[in-house]
Amino acid sequence: MNNSSPIKKSSLFVFIILFLISGCAFNVLDYSNVKDKEFQLSFTSDVPDELKNKINIVFQDNSLSNSLNSNFIKISGFTIETYDIFSGKALRALEVEVKSSILLTITIGNKINKKKLMAMKRYNANELNILAENEMLDFIKKEIYEDFLDQIVLEVGLIEM
Predict the structure, then answer these.
(1) What would the pLDDT profile of 131-151 be if each residue is shown by its tens digit?
(2) Extents of the domains making up the chain
(3) CATH 3.30.160.150: does it fit domain 32-160?
(4) What 3-state DSSP class applies to 134?
(5) What is the pLDDT of residues 20-51, one digit of tens each?
């Protein structure tokens, strides 16, 4: 009888720990709650077409329907800057830092939220092939656009709560 008691206590302890760990699960960013609502999207001329297309796909731009109860998302003030990071005895940059920001205005019902979203990425610049370095910069820009899309979806989800 004494031997089963510590086993029961340890199994109960393991069960409680597993229950707590599963309760703290990290959820993947979900676009389904955003697709249920109709949004009118507005972009300024400085926002790149690739970013506009990504946002239009997720938010299903319904700018043709001019309903009074629709929700608005305005994206403006897109900037992207690159900085060379020098280090050591090298005469050329070892890394390049790409910083980007946008201004986001979300209107859902009576709630208006204005935020400045920022994204920063770094990559090695010690490539001898200039074309490869340009391709890496294009890849980093695409990653920044995806990051902005995720941040916008998160902000819309937070306002709806």
Answers:
(1) 888 899 999 999 999 999 999
(2) 32-160
(3) yes
(4) helix
(5) 665 554 555 555 555 556 778 899 999 999 99
